[in-house]
Amino acid sequence: MAVPVSSEASLAGAPLTYNPDLERLEIELLLEGVFRHYGFDFRAYAYASIRRRLWKRVEGEGLRTISGLQDRILHDPEAMERLLLDLSVNVTAMFRDPSFYKEFREQVVPLLRTYPFIRIWHAGCSTGEEVFSMAILLEEEGLYDRARLYATDINDVVLQRAKQGIFPLDRMQEYTENYLRAGGKHSFSQYYTAKYDGALFSPALTRNIVFSQHNLVTDRSFSEFHVIFCRNVLIYFDKTLQNRVHSLFYDSLVMFGIMALGSKESLKFSQYEPCYEKLSATEKLYRKVH
Q1: How far apart are the C-alpha atoms of 238 and 4, rounded to whole Å?
Q2: H helices of the chain, where?
Q3: What is the pLDDT of residue 39?
Q4: For the chain, percent helix, then strand, then coil, each to nearest 5?
Q5: What sign does the CA torsion over 82, 86, 89, 90 have?
Q6: Beta pairing, strands 147-153 & 209-213
Q7: Do 202 and 144 contact (CB within 8 A), yes or no?
């Protein structure tokens, strides 16, 4: 039965009524087309989130329907790049959730000191703020020279931005406050140079960072890690996909390795919950014990 159209559809210039079952079919066909043609698998992403992002791109392309968007992205790789930016989650900040980094210094850094070499995976690193934050933290703790950080994301566009190490100058005050609340030991401004409207972070911070494209949905593990960060990514996946990613992380962590999730994420009710102990329940830091 046709019902009043959503605000998103109205903005996109869709008809005044729409059929939700037909809309779901259109979305499923589009996601299947993206997977078959480009290899990006968004089919198990949370439906409400993916629907909202697709309508945003319909509007951005000046189209009227999801099917119209499918036609465009399958024939125009640049349109696919624009869609990928919408579907990738790129909300981030340096030392985001300062209490998390403070807890990491206190709980995890002492454990990392016991390893001769440290491998850390930032899964879904977006534009790199989290990776640079960790590089600074490890530098201050005297661990960076024996660490390797692997920064991966499905989206090559944001990875290229991350490699540049340039962040908006107008966010430096916010980042400085985060850094200090996270237990920063120096002056935050020593890590970057202000140029025009950007802050260029010291190239020395990237000396032990490897940037690489990786799809959590379809790609396998590529090493063993002492720490895995995947913060505020899993909330956009459905339960089946969350379990698949947890399996990937479990296989990728060394015994007694650390997994860091986002504030709204949890291992609760997952099949891997018994495999970890909580290092910090509030900051979602878990240690693999089985």
Answers
A1: 27
A2: 7-11, 20-38, 47-60, 66-75, 77-87, 98-103, 109-112, 129-140, 156-164, 172-181, 239-252
A3: 82
A4: 50, 20, 30
A5: positive
A6: parallel
A7: no
What is the per-residue pLDDT across 29-75, written as a single tens digit (0 to 9) for each? 999 999 999 888 888 888 998 999 999 999 999 999 999 999 999 99
Of 162, 174, 166, 222, nearest to 197 (Cα)?
166
What is the pLDDT, as a whole number, of residue 235? 82
* pTM attached to this predicted model: 0.81
Dig out the tokens for 242 from the structure: 């969350």
User: CA distances (Å), 129 to each of 25, 40, 49, 140, 248, in order?
Assistant: 37, 24, 23, 17, 24
Q: How confident is the model at residue 5, as a pLDDT? A: 44
Q: Please tell me the CATH superfamily of domain 98-165+204-288, with its number.
A: Vaccinia Virus protein VP39 (3.40.50.150)
Structure tokens at 104: 């990491």
Domain residue spans in the chain? 3-87, 98-165+204-288
51, 18 in Cβ contact below 8 A? no
Rounded Cα distance between 140 and 223, Å, is 26
Predicted local distance difference test score (pLDDT) of residue 91: 66
Write the CA distances from 14 to 10, 17, 18, 51, 225, integer angstroms: 6, 8, 8, 14, 47
Q: How does pLDDT run across 244-282, given as a tens digit for each residue? A: 999 999 999 999 999 999 988 988 888 999 999 999 999
Token pair, residue 276, equals 């970890």
Q: How far apart are CA 1 and CA 7, in angstroms?
A: 18
Alpha carbon 91 to its chain's center: 8
Does residue 1 carry a pLDDT above 70?
no
Residue 227 is encoded by which pair of tokens? 């720490």
